[in-house]
Queue: 2 jobs
Job 1
Amino acid sequence: MAQLSRYSDELVEQVLSELVSVLEKHHAPTDLSLMVLGNMVTNLINTSVAPGQRQVLARSFADALQASITTHNAH
């Protein structure tokens, strides 16, 4: 089920497109891209979320990521 967001689809797509462009500019393979994005998530949580809420948010993020992964071949 899709969740409502306070951000417009257009803004989300614009930011996503810019992030993808940076990874493509550096010819980042999948493993490097995942490492960089994972480090970004960790940094955001550690610098922007109260210490007492970090584990809860990290678990929620991980659960949402897991739920968004498809099992069919998308290539």
Note: The chain has one domain: 9-68.
Job 2
Amino acid sequence: MIETVAVITGGAGGMGLAVAKILGREHRVLIADLQQSRLDAAQAELKDLGVNCDTAICDVTDTASVSALFAQATGLGRVACVIHTAGVSPQMAPPEVIIRVNGLGTINIANAALEIASEGMALINVASNSAHMLPGIMVPTRAFRHAFTDPERFVEKVLKRSNLMRKDFYKKGLAYAFSKSFVLWYSRQIAADFGKLGARVLSVSPGSFDTEMGRLEEKSGSADMLKDAALKRFGRPEEIAEVLAFCASDKASYLTGTDILCDGGVIAGKRG
């Protein structure tokens, strides 16, 4: 019997590791990250739980690195799902890096996933509730369209829009919101291409979660958003992991081309 594989980018991080623990009950997991030390620690934790786990160094902004990741994955078995959690937040990087990792990285992962897509496979892209906060008129959809023909121009155009803000704090925040808006938009746009192969693609938009990245963003105001939320707390990694795992499973086999908002009611509260 051919082994099934779950590929998880950012697999050594809070959300990635949490979803690997769930998907590892049914699949062999291949976790990808930038640092081998983090991968080794995550692999050891997963193996203690009885999860069959492999690791890969992968820079999602580099097409050769992404190609190597998927070559490794297909060498292990049939890829059942790809959970793309790799990303950076405003506190972690300047605007261009944010757009490259969150936007260009999503393009690279999706292109590689489409090449090996088969009946029943699912690609789940992690977006953010920040994408739901932008008025539609602010979303640079015309710039997003370059993703299909000239990804570097896509980065250039979105960065230019982000740099209209004067202060670095706002530039990074806008770059992040734009990059995650792109993840929503792009996941919808490519759903038909995956559907032709019997595969699915959708996005999941988390709010504030108790992860290393989530707590880092607490300093820039993410905790303040909870004042308007229905649930006045940070989410737990295992809560978003269950959503991601469900979306990737056969139980969600008719779910594609859409976004799942999981933010404890932050957006609902802001919309009143």
Note: The mean pLDDT is 93.
